[in-house]
Every structure is written in structure tokens, then in C-alpha cells.
Specification:
The structure is a homodimer of 180-residue chains. Chain A is mostly helical and 180 residues long. In chain A, 73% of the residues lie in helices and 0% in strands.
Chain lengths: 180, 180
């Protein structure tokens, strides 16, 4: 509910009164169990952090083949962003308002996501699956960008779901699972 | 300078005092020539709007061949986001704080950018250059996502420049200019 309200009006304009009333709590009860507005933003960032880590770990663990690992990481991550669109949107928009230690921790995990995905990309550049002779980091950020950007344009009421969107991304990258 | 300061600390924490002092003006002079903080945010949004339109129009006018049009639009747009990284970042993060009429106008132009690029994508799906049987809008947003997301990760002090990044995107999409 906090992500809902921060998503609609921004963190600054959102109030714990509104959040408390939407979940049927009094403001003091909300304060008691969760804390102040900044604590809600921290919780949102930590949820995004956990979703990113899960997508990465599940994707890497899904196979010992780099091609399958990369397609799994991208699929898991695309689905995570779409499933938690408002959490990711609020995190991407408001991360400068996080307490410095939380901000640093989540940003460091984001960089680790890129770094570890880039290792898989590098393996696929070596075996000719992906174009070689270009920065693996730029290739990785391009792929992550496709997925992350869904926070901006995806409409839940649209006709295309998360799994189909992930499939289109892989197809565009010529990484779609082989059919034969 | 305003984009600089809003980028570093967010729109809410940024002050016109800080902006005025950075450009060597008094606060009343800044108010007189530009207006209040909200007017600076509007100016930022309108600059982003103009950069988007320019990238689209220049890209479409560059050729009568859809493949060249699409590569030109993507290259121009990637370079525009990177060249104006802070303006785009502030717009993407703070657009909910714009006055409703400005917000609507720029958002409508953003949608037009997607719609007109999707027409070119559709032509390339018909001629087999891009995978058919998938939503042209999703394909378009995937490409725009690669470019837009540079607002989040690009570092001007890094080794890879805007033109090279755009080239990597096109290569990944198998749209790189033919060499023979």
C-alpha cells in the first residue's frame, strides 16, 4: 500500500496517515509496527533488493550452461519487475531519499547483479552466441535496461503479460530457447 | 545547474538558493528570469520533450528505408539521453511533480514517440528484419528501454562513449548497419 501511494504521488507527497487509513490501521499503530515514512521506503528498497537477488540466484542456478543461465536471469528479472512494478518504480525514483547505508547496500547489490550477469555474457561472447569485441558491461546493461524499463511503460490492464514480454526480449536478442 | 542539483539530492531537497548561488545570481534575480522551483522542473521536462522530438524527427527524416530510420532513431535517442543524462533522470524521477498540463503534454509526446517508432518496427516485422508475431509496441519499448536506461547506469567518466553504446545496442538487435 505504501508503494501504491508513493507511486501515485511521490514519496514526499505521500503520508503515513493515508497509508494507515488504506490498511485500516491508526497512524500510531502503523508507526509502532513499521515506523515512519522513511522506514517504509527502506522496506520497499529491501524488497526490491531481495527480488533482484532472487532473480539472479534462481537464474544462475537453473543450469550450468551460460545461455540458459542468461535467459533464465533475464526472464526472472523481467517477471520480478513487472510483478512488483510499483516497488521498483518507487525505488528507482526515490533511491536518493534512502538513508545512506541502505542506499549503498542496495546499489552495491545492483552492481553485483550487473557484474555477475556480465560474466555469463562474457562466456557467451567467447562462444559466439553474443557479439564479441564490445564491452560485456554495456551488453549486460542493455539487456537489464529492456527489463528494468518495464517499470515505466508496463500497464497491468494491457494484453501482453510478463512471460510474453520476457519472451519478446529474448527473441529480439536472438536468445530465445531453441525449438529443435 | 538545476538538473545537476535536483539529480544529486532530488527535487524536494534542492533549493533555488543553491541553484542561484551556483550560477552566480541572487535568488530574486533567478526568480525574476526563470521563476520558482516548479518552473525549473517544467523547463527540464520541456527540454527532455524537445530532445525526444528531435531524435524522432531527425531519425525518421534520415532515410525512406525503415531499417535506416529505426537505427537512426535509436542512435539519436541514445545519444540524446546520454548527452542530457541529468535532465532525463530528473524528468523520469520527478514527472509526478510536474503541473498536470505539462505532465500530460510530455507524456503524450512520449507515447507518440513509441507509436511512431512502432510503425517503423511493424514495417520491419513485415519484411522479416525483426521477429514477427509479437507486439510491435513491446518490441519498441524494449529498444527504447535499452536507450532510456542509460540514464540510470551511464558514467561520463567511463571508457565507452554514447556512439559506441548506441552501436552495441544495434548490434545486439541485429540491426547494425550492413558493412557490405
Amino acid at each position: 500500500v505504501a508503494a501504491d501511494i508513493f507511486y501515485a504521488n511521490g514519496f514526499t507527497a505521500g503520508t503515513t496517515r493515508e497509508i494507515a487509513s488504506r490498511v485500516g490501521l491508526t497512524q500510531p499503530t502503523l508507526y509502532h509496527y513499521v515506523g515512519k515514512k522513511e522506514d517504509l521506503l527502506r522496506e520497499i528498497a529491501l524488497r526490491v533488493d531481495a527480488e533482484m537477488s532472487d532473480a539472479l540466484e534462481r537464474g544462475l542456478a537453473s543450469s550450468d550452461q551460460p545461455r540458459e543461465q542468461l535467459t533464465a536471469v533475464l526472464t526472472e528479472f523481467t517477471e520480478a519487475v513487472i510483478r512488483n512494478q510499483k516497488l521498483f518504480a518507487v525505488y528507482y525514483k526515490e533511491q536518493h531519499l534512502l538513508a545512506p547505508e541502505v542506499r549503498k547496500q542496495v546499489a552495491e547489490h545492483e552492481r553485483a547483479f550487473v557484474r555477475r550477469t556480465a560474466q555469463v555474457v562474457r562466456a557467451l561472447q567467447r562462444d559466439g552466441t553474443l557479439p564479441a569485441g564490445t564491452s560485456a558491461t554495456v551488453v549486460t546493461e542493455a539487456m537489464i535496461g529492456m527489463a528494468s524499463w518495464t517499470y515505466h511503460w508496463y500497464r497491468p490492464e494491457g494484453r501482453v503479460g510478463a512471460r510474453e514480454i520476457a519472451r519478446v526480449f529474448l527473441q529480439l536478442l536472438h536468445l530465445n530457447p531453441k525449438r529443435h
